[in-house]
Amino acid sequence: DLNALVEFPISATGQIDDVGYIAPAIKARHRDIGSTFGLAYQRETRKTFVSAYHKRAVGFGPSGVGAIYSVDSNNVIALHATIPNAGNDTHDFTGDYTTNTYDEAAVAGVGKNALGDMEISADGQTLYVVNLNDRHLYSVSTDASATVSDLGAITRPADCPDLDFRPFGLGVDNKGMLYVGAVCSNESSNAASGRPSAIVLKYDGATFTKVFGYDLYFGDNGNSNFPYWTNWTDTLSGDKSQPATGSTYQPMLSDIVFENDNLVMAFRNRGSDVSYYTAGDVSAVGSVIKACWDGATWALENNGVCGGITGALSNDSNIGPGGGFFYNIKDAIGSENSKGALATAPTHNIIATLVDPIRKISGGVQQLDPVSGAKTGQYEIYNGTPNGLGENGYFGKANGMGDIELLCDPAPVEVGNRVWIDEDKDGLQGADELGVDGVDVKLVCGADEATVTTANGGEYYFSNAVGGNATFMEFGESCTVSIAAGQAALSGYGLTLRNADGDTSNNARTDIRDSDAVDKTNLVEIAFTVGRAGENNDTFDFGFNNAPPPAQVDLELTKTVDKTKVLSNEEIIYTLTVTNTTATNATGVVIDDPLPAGLSYVSDDGGTATTENAGNITWSVGNVDANSSVSLNITAKVD
Prior knowledge:
Blueprint: E1 3-7, E2 25-29, H1 30-33, E3 36-42, E4 47-52, E5 67-71, E6 77-82, E7 115-120, E8 126-131, E9 136-141, E10 148-153, E11 165-172, E12 178-184, E13 197-203, E14 208-215, E15 251-259, E16 262-269, H2 271-274, E17 287-293, E18 298-300, E19 305-306, E20 309-310, E21 338-343, E22 350-355, E23 362-368, E24 375-383, E25 414-421, E26 440-445, E27 448-453, E28 459-463, E29 478-484, E30 494-495, E31 518-520, E32 523-529, E33 542-545, E34 555-561, E35 571-580, E36 586-594, E37 599-604, E38 610-613, E39 616-624, E40 629-638
Parallel strand pairs: 25-33
Antiparallel strand pairs: 1-2, 3-4, 4-5, 5-6, 7-8, 8-9, 9-10, 11-12, 12-13, 13-14, 15-16, 16-17, 17-18, 19-20, 21-22, 22-23, 23-24, 25-28, 26-27, 26-29, 29-32, 30-33, 31-32, 34-35, 35-40, 36-39, 37-40, 38-39
């Protein structure tokens, strides 16, 4: 029954028992999705995706180690996809959960089984997720097909041994390019002289290229009791509660965000995912590190200075790169305590997860000023009992949270543009041709509709922005804009030539200056499909002139077959249907239909109106009346 996915306002601050505290809304519970880290949000559908994560002492959701779940705005939860080859569920929950030895079997799978970080493409159509077991990058379509594609092994740098290469984090830059964050863990040698390192790779849709890297041992910097970071190991302390001495802080580069062109990287402590310490007060310890873009490459922050700007913890902790940190990710007792997740959006602070945002043995988020690195607000999501074992334990000071995402509204879509008089009757808008004000234009999307009146030279617009005049207009929906006949502003005018520019696509970049409307009964109409977020289309134009409109028809042709499987010498029946979708009768219609190879013509029901010559069927349809259909059945035999 414990909370597993929650939502809260970005402005929320304070701790749980404060007056005026805004409690997070529950989106899913542990029984619904289990242990998760990766998180992505599709703005158009307001749907959240979460992916399975392997952590000691907490089980997977009902669909196991490779699961990606979807949670919609009504909190309806479903399995969206399963990533193959994600490893095994090695948990053992048969022991006594009040002892430090609980679920020791899960230790070796942390960071090596299940799924790591997850990102969504800029157009919202594709999820990207890291498979921690086979170290491949996978893509998953966000539509109902949930198509899973293996994009291949994430390329390991030659200087990192195979056992040590551990990809985890993902990030998307301002140009939509995908980046992968990894560490070289030094687990294979575990030598005191060796140190883990960070690796950032860029994925261009085909190949992975290392673009940045650095040593994660920053020297003792005057604090020899706290070396950042240490080698990975599955060896535990004598009481099995935490990693063996000297390997407490095991880095995972778990998340990447971009502040302008600068890299911001969050590190999660693997040691806090393998720990199970019932005494309660062992800090998670994690960091947020910045690298600034100089126009050609990234330069790692040094003593809290990045890109010439001094951050929040210069000369403070003595444990960061060069002796300090740019971002202040300190917890309530003064330790660098990131839980390895970041989120950011233009005009907003960077939001980071951390241990003890306000008080000990709790978990929440801290906002970071992207320019100065200062912390600007803390919010507590859960608090634990002193020994971490109560109903509200939530892992106390260990890693108790996964990724974080901002639930931004989608960019709105606007459609429309102009009603004009085509004086030269060429179907194209001329620079001197005037628009018509006072014309009512109707938008219809399913059962919803809205009407606007043209103004400012014949212009009209519909928008689904918050407070817009067509908030019902949904992405991908089939809609029409139309003008009813008999309006006073158009008295004496008829519809001009359609698609005179030769472009029938209604594309916002190419079909921009001709009339797009088709003549229907008692109205003229333009049909379209609503674009994705931010895809405005201001090219839906209606042209009128005072001459009788040229006769135009729109014919649609469909072909169906009566069987889906056939045997040799069996007969099948094709049905051709031609439909006139306009208010104008079509005349002299002829259809040629070549039979596919492997079929022989037998007969048809068109009589003398149909001829067959060497497998090509010619159907002389003749007239197709306005808004009507005519069909022909063709019988053929499978050779």
